[in-house]
C-alpha cells in the first residue's frame, strides 16, 4: 500500500499542479495578511477562499487526476493487488497532497502572522472540506467512464453544495418563517458539509450578530461538547460515506 | 482612602471649627451610631471606628458628617434599610454597607435620601445591598468614588445600584457598580452629570434613563450588561466619550435611544455589541466621532427616526453597518468612514467619489426572518448582496453616504 501511495504521490508532484495550488494559497494568504492588520478580517476573507475555491479545486483536480491515471490503475489491477488497496492508495495520496497544500498555503502565513483560535478553526475546516470533496469527486469519477461527464458530475456536487442547497434552505426559511425552525435548520445544515463548516466559522467570527434567539441556540449547541462531537462526526460521515460508496462501486466495476 | 477623608475633612473645616467630633467605637463611650446621632448637633462629625454595627434602620435627620475610619461595617442583617437621610448637608464617607433587606413593594436601600440637598456620599463600599444609593426629590448633591457590588441572578431579587428619582443637579463621579438590576437609574433627574463611572454585569441596564432632560454623561464604561444602556423619553442629553462594550443578546443594545430628541452622541466607542445603537422615534440627534467596531449591527435606525445626523464616525469590522425597517429615510448620513467602502477617489481629497450604501440587502432579509442569519457569509448571500448593490430593490435608495471618507478618522 505504501509503495502504491509513493508512486501516485510522485506522479502528482510531477504534474506541478499541487505546487501551483500551494503557491496560489500562500501568495493570496500573505497578501491578505499584509493588506489588513485586523486578523478577524483576514480570516473572513480567507473563509471565502476556503468555502468556494478549496472545494472547487479539490473536486476538479481529483477527477482529472483519476482519469489521467486510468492507465496506471489498469496496469496495477493486472498485478495481484487488491482493488480496494489501489483505490485507497489513490484516495490517500490525492487527499494528503491537497490537504498539505492547504495546510502549507494557509497555515504557514497564519502562523507567521500570529495564529489565533479562529485561524486554527479555519485550517480545520479547510482540511475537512478538502477531504469531503475529494471523496465526492472519487464517487463522481467511478460513477461514469466518460471523463467530461465525471467532471460535470463533480462540478455539480460543488455547485449544489455551495449554491443550490443554500437557495433551497433560504426558501424553506422563507416559507416556514412563522414556525420555530431552529432544530429543523440544524438538521438541514448537517446535510451540507459546506454549510456546516461555514456555521462553525460564523460562530467564531460573527458571534455578536448571531446573538439573536437563533444564534444563541446555535452557539449553545455548537459550543457544547456534544455539539463539537456532533459537527465533527457529521463531517467525518461526509468523508467516509461517499468514499465507501465509491470504493464499493470501484471494486465491482468493469473497467 | 486617606486622601478622600482628608479632602472631606478640609471641605468641612469651617464647620469643624464650630462643631465637635463624636467618636463612635464598639468599646468606647459612644458605642452605637444611634446614640451618636441622637446626641449630635447639626454640623457635628461622627468618626466611626472599625467594627461591625448592627443597628437596624438609622434615621439621620440633622446635618451631620459620618466618617468611617478603617471601613467600619454597617450590617442590615438582610432585614433593614440601613441609613435613611432626611436632612440637608449630610456627608457619608468611608463606610461599608452590607446585606440590606429586600422587598417587592418598598425600595429598601443602603442609603436612602429624600427631600434633601447638599448630600455627599463619598468613598463607601456596598455589598449585597438591594438598592445601593436611593435619592428621591434631592438636589445639589454628589455621589463619588463608591463601590457597589451584588450578585443577584434574577431581576426581581435586586434593586438598582444608584437610583435617582425626581432629582436635580446631582453629580455621579467615579463609581463602580456591578451585579445590580440597573447600574444607574434616572427617572425625572435633570441637569445631572455622570462621569467616569464603570457599570458592569448588571442584570438589566448599565444605565437606565427616563424623562431626565439636560443631563450629561462622559467617560463612563458600560460593559457586559444584560441589555446595555437605555435612554428614553428625554431631550437634551449629551453622551460624550463613553465606552459601550460587549452587551450581547437578542434584545441587547450598546445604546438604546427611544424617543430622544435634540441630543448629542459624540466620541463614544461601541465595541462588540449585538446592536451598537438602536434608535427608535428619535429626532435631531447629532452622532459624531463615534467608533463602531465589531458589532453585530453597528446602528439599527428605525424608520420612525427623523432629522438625525451621522458624521465623522468610523464603522469597522461590523457584521452589518446600518439596518433599517422601512424605505423612508429622514436622516442624514454623511462623511463617515466605512471599512466596506469599495469606491475610488480620483482627485485624492480623501473623499470617495461614489456614494456608499451602508444597508446590506441581507440585513433587510434578516430583519424580517431572524432565522435567515444562518446563511450569512454564504456564496448565495454574497451574490444576492452584489445584485442588490447594482440595482437596489429592497434597500432604501436614499439611505447613503454621499461623501464617505477613504481613511478612518483619528478617534480616541
Please, could you describe this protein's structure?
- The complex is a heterodimer of chains A (255) and B (412).
- Chain A has one domain.
- Helix content of chain A is 86%, strand content 0%.
- Chain A has 11 helices and no strands.
- Chain A is globular, with a radius of gyration of 19 Å.
- Chain A starts with a helix and ends with a helix.
- Chain B has 412 residues and is mainly β.
- Chain B has 2 domains: 1-212, 3 Solenoid (Pectate Lyase C-like); 227-359 and 396-412, no CATH class.
- Chain B contains 5 helices and 36 strands.
- Chain B has a 13-stranded parallel sheet, with no helix packed on it. Chain B has an 8-stranded parallel barrel with strand order 15-17-20-23-26-24-21-18.
- In chain B, strand 1, helix 3 (33-39) and strand 2 form a beta-alpha-beta unit.
- The two termini of chain B are 31 Å apart.
- The relative contact order of chain B is 0.06.
- The model of chain B has no long low-confidence stretch (mean pLDDT 90).
- Chain A binds chain B through residues 38, 40-41, 44, 47-48, 51-52, 162-163, 166-167, 169-170, 173-174, 177, 181-182, 185, 189, 194-195, 198-199, 201-202, 205-216, 218, and chain B through 248-250, 252, 272-274, 294-297, 316-317, 319-320, 339, 368-383.
Amino acid at each position: 500500500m505504501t509503495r502504491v501511495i509513493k508512486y501516485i504521490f510522485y506522479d502528482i508532484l510531477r504534474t506541478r499542479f499541487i505546487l501551483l495550488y500551494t503557491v496560489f494559497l500562500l501568495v493570496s494568504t500573505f497578501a491578505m495578511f499584509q493588506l489588513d492588520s485586523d486578523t478577524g478580517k483576514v480570516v473572513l476573507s480567507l473563509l471565502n477562499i476556503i468555502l468556494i475555491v478549496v472545494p472547487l479545486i479539490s473536486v476538479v483536480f481529483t477527477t482529472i487526476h483519476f482519469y489521467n491515471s486510468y492507465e496506471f490503475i489498469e496496469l496495477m489491477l493486472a498485478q495481484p493487488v487488491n482493488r480496494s488497496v489501489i483505490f485507497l492508495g489513490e484516495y490517500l495520496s490525492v487527499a494528503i497532497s491537497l490537504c498539505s497544500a492547504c495546510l502549507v498555503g494557509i497555515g504557514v502565513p497564519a502562523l507567521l502572522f500570529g495564529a489565533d483560535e479562529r485561524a486554527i478553526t479555519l485550517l480545520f475546516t479547510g482540511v475537512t472540506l478538502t477531504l469531503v470533496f475529494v471523496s465526492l469527486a472519487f464517487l463522481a469519477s467511478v460513477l461514469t467512464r466518460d471523463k467530461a461527464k465525471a467532471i460535470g458530475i463533480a462540478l455539480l456536487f460543488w455547485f449544489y453544495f455551495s449554491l443550490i442547497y443554500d437557495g433551497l434552505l433560504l426558501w424553506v426559511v422563507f416559507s416556514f418563517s412563522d414556525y420555530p425552525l431552529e432544530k429543523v435548520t440544524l438538521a438541514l445544515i448537517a446535510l451540507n458539509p459546506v454549510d456546516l463548516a461555514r456555521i462553525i466559522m460564523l460562530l467564531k467570527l460573527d458571534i455578536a450578530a448571531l446573538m439573536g434567539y437563533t444564534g444563541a441556540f446555535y452557539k449553545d449547541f455548537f459550543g457544547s461538547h456534544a455539539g463539537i462531537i456532533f459537527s465533527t462526526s457529521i463531517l467525518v460521515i461526509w468523508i467516509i460515506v461517499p468514499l465507501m460508496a465509491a470504493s464499493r462501486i470501484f471494486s465491482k466495476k468493469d473497467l | 482612602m486617606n486622601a478622600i477623608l482628608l479632602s472631606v475633612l478640609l471641605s468641612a473645616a469651617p464647620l469643624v471649627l464650630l462643631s465637635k467630633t463624636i467618636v463612635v467605637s464598639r468599646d468606647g463611650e459612644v458605642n452605637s451610631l444611634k446614640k451618636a446621632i441622637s446626641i449630635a448637633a447639626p454640623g457635628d462629625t461622627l468618626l466611626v471606628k472599625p467594627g461591625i454595627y448592627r443597628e437596624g434602620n438609622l434615621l439621620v435627620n440633622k446635618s451631620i458628617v459620618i466618617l468611617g475610619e478603617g471601613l467600619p461595617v454597617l450590617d442590615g442583617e438582610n432585614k433593614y434599610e440601613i441609613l435613611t437621610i432626611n436632612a440637608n448637608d449630610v456627608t457619608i464617607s468611608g463606610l461599608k454597607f452590607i446585606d440590606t433587606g429586600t422587598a417587592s413593594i418598598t425600595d429598601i436601600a443602603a442609603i436612602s435620601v429624600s427631600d434633601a440637598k447638599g448630600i455627599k456620599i463619598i468613598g463607601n463600599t456596598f455589598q449585597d445591598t438591594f438598592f445601593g444609593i436611593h435619592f428621591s426629590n434631592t438636589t445639589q448633591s454628589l455621589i463619588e468614588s463608591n463601590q457597589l457590588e451584588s450578585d443577584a441572578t434574577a431581576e426581581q431579587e435586586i434593586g438598582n445600584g444608584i437610583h435617582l428619582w425626581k432629582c436635580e443637579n446631582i453629580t455621579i463621579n467615579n463609581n463602580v457598580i456591578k451585579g445590580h438590576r440597573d447600574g444607574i437609574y434616572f427617572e425625572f433627574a435633570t441637569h445631572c452629570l455622570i462621569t467616569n463611572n464603570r457599570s458592569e454585569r448588571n442584570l438589566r441596564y448599565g444605565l437606565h434613563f427616563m424623562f431626565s432632560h439636560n443631563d450629561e454623561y462622559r467617560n463612563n464604561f458600560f460593559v457586559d450588561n444584560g441589555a446595555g444602556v437605555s435612554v428614553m423619553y428625554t431631550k437634551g442629553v449629551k453622551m460624550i466619550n463613553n465606552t459601550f462594550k460587549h452587551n450581547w443578546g437578542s434584545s441587547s443594545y450598546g445604546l438604546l435611544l427611544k424617543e430622544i430628541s435634540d441630543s448629542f452622541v459624540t466620541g463614544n466607542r461601541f465595541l462588540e455589541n449585538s446592536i451598537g445603537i438602536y434608535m427608535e422615534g428619535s429626532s435631531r440627534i447629532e452622532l459624531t466621532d463615534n467608533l463602531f467596531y465589531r458589532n453585530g449591527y453597528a446602528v439599527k435606525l428605525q424608520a420612525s427616526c427623523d432629522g438625525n445626523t451621522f458624521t465623522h464616525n468610523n464603522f469597522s469590522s461590523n457584521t452589518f453597518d446600518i439596518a433599517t425597517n422601512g424605505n423612508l429615510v429622514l436622516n442624514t448620513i454623511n462623511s463617515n468612514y466605512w471599512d466596506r467602502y469599495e469606491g475610488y477617489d480620483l482627485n485624492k481629497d480623501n473623499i470617495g467619489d461614489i456614494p456608499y450604501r451602508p444597508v446590506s440587502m441581507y440585513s433587510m432579509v434578516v430583519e424580517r426572518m431572524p432565522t435567515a442569519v444562518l446563511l450569512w457569509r454564504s456564496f448565495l448571500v454574497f451574490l444576492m448582496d452584489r445584485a442588490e448593490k447594482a440595482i437596489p430593490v429592497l434597500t432604501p435608495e436614499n439611505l447613503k453616504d454621499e461623501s464617505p471618507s477613504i481613511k478612518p478618522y483619528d478617534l480616541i
